[in-house]
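During the no-cost extension, the postdoctoral fellow (Dr. R.K.) reprocessed legacy sequence entries with the updated structure-token encoder. One reprocessed record is reproduced below for audit purposes.
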Amino acid sequence: VWERVQKQYVDFLSDWRTDLGGGKNFHNGRGGTYDCIALMAYYGVCKDVTSLAEIEKMEGDLFLPSFRILSHFVNCNKPLFKKLMYRAFRNAKKQCDKWGDFKMNIAPFEKGKPLYYEFTQCPTAEFAAKHDLLEVMPALCNPDYTGMELIHARLVRKTTCSNGCRCDYTICGDCDPYVKEHPEYVDEHGYRRNR
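Re-encoded structure tokens follow.
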């Protein structure tokens, strides 16, 4: 099975970008987008014996360790951490512009308001669409919610690049009244979303 997964991964990358990950690209940590493609290779080979819940757990195991470390001291209800998050998002946009992978827009910082940024291009969603694997995308996108929850924040998202024209991120502290105005639900495809 492992050999089949590796062969599928190599086949996937034979006509795909090879400049998206590794130690030099910041997005999603070391490996980045390629981790998602590896999970899609695993899903494609093991579709009959795996589930999207398993894929989501594996994505969380790859994506969430840094958030678990931050959870010990970060609380996004505090203004300092919101400012630090905004700086991190501004840096992320610079990196996205440099790498030409994700197309990112970020709204100006407004004191007392949620933070907002969006992706209008996502290489993972593009890859999934190209290989008829969009059904896997909820498992790769949903851990974004868990990451925010670990740092006392909430993600409010209405659409992603895989089920719409952009992936919108409105982020506020978990005590912010904004969260109650936009209740979360799971749509028919398995995406965590907000109204």
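The first strand starts at residue 103 and ends at 106. The mean pLDDT is 92. The remaining legacy entries will be reprocessed before the final report is submitted.
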